[in-house]
């Protein structure tokens, strides 16, 4: 067993993007960090980060990973559920099988990790579970219905979980990024059977999304919010990451329903 006296953080999906920057930021904040990837043979080594293989869509993979971390490090103080997949296309173009695949990673993957890590945190009487949501956890996004639904699910799950685990010294917190400069769009599932009825508007929204990601926040901006959530002595239930996410939260909370609806359509260049 490796015991350094430093707190231990476990970050899923840490080979690139937000997960990679979060792992590095947690090392800088004084944590021993375990990062996970589905294929560790393709991971570029990061100073201070121990990489282990993990498929969050597999019960056995999750159970084995958490047991290995516990055996090697003796504790798990912070879990960052960052691993996720995207999905683009109209709701009608998205098969149930595609939607199930999104939920198996984005929602059930989080649940698998939580269920394996929580017994260790309860035994310690301390811990932070940080689930990476999105502004799409509280905003609608046309032509991303399955992904948006998965992030709405994470918001409700995490808030409910937080109330359950506080008595055991554990907190479950949400971090909500806005558009971030990652490979999200390129790595998102596309419709298996595109429908002509949606083609024009889907293409317009795809252009909007590509521009938003290109001009979005750097992954380090999100990582900073995650480290704040991990170390805040008086943690808040949710942390918006970056100024755009903060503005989106205010829009959702304060804008009248009609104004909000029109703004969503204007932002996505939807007609009618």
From TrEMBL:
<comment type="similarity">
    <text>Belongs to the short-chain dehydrogenases/reductases (SDR) family.</text>
</comment>
<keyword id="KW-0560">Oxidoreductase</keyword>
<protein>
    <submittedName>
        <fullName>Oxidoreductase</fullName>
    </submittedName>
</protein>
<dbReference type="InterPro" id="IPR051911">
    <property type="entry name" value="SDR_oxidoreductase"/>
</dbReference>
<dbReference type="GO" id="GO:0016491">
    <property type="term" value="F:oxidoreductase activity"/>
</dbReference>
<dbReference type="InterPro" id="IPR036291">
    <property type="entry name" value="NAD(P)-bd_dom_sf"/>
</dbReference>
<dbReference type="Pfam" id="PF00106">
    <property type="entry name" value="adh_short"/>
</dbReference>
<dbReference type="InterPro" id="IPR002347">
    <property type="entry name" value="SDR_fam"/>
</dbReference>
């Amino acid at each position: 067993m490796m015991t350094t006296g430093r707190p231990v953080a476990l970050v899923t999906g840490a080979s690139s993007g937000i997960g990679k920057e979060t792992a590095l930021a947690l090392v800088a904040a004084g944590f021993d960090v375990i990062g996970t990837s589905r294929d560790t043979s393709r991971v570029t080594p990061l100073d201070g980060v121990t990489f282990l293989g993990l498929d969050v869509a597999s019960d056995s993979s999750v159970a084995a990973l958490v047991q290995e971390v516990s055996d090697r490090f003796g504790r798990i103080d912070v879990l960052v559920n960052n691993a996720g997949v995207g999905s683009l296309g109209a709701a009608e173009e998205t098969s149930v099988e595609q939607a199930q695949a999104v939920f198996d990673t984005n929602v059930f993957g989080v649940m698998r990790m939580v269920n394996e890590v929580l017994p260790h945190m309860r035994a310690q009487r301390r811990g932070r579970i940080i689930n990476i949501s999105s502004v799409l956890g509280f905003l609608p996004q046309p032509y991303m219905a399955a992904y948006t639904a998965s992030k709405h699910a994470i918001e409700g799950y995490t808030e409910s979980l937080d109330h359950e685990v506080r008595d055991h010294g554990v907190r479950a917190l949400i971090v909500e990024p806005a558009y971030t400069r990652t490979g999200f769009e390129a790595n998102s599932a596309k419709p298996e059977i595109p429908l002509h009825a949606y083609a024009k508007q889907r293409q317009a929204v795809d252009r909007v999304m590509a521009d938003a990601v290109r001009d979005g926040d750097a992954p380090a901006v999100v990582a900073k919010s995650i480290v704040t959530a991990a170390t805040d002595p008086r943690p808040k239930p949710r942390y918006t990451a970056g100024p755009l996410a903060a503005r989106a939260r205010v829009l959702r909370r304060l804008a009248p329903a009609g104004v909000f609806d029109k703004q969503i359509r204007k932002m996505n260049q939807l007609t009618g």
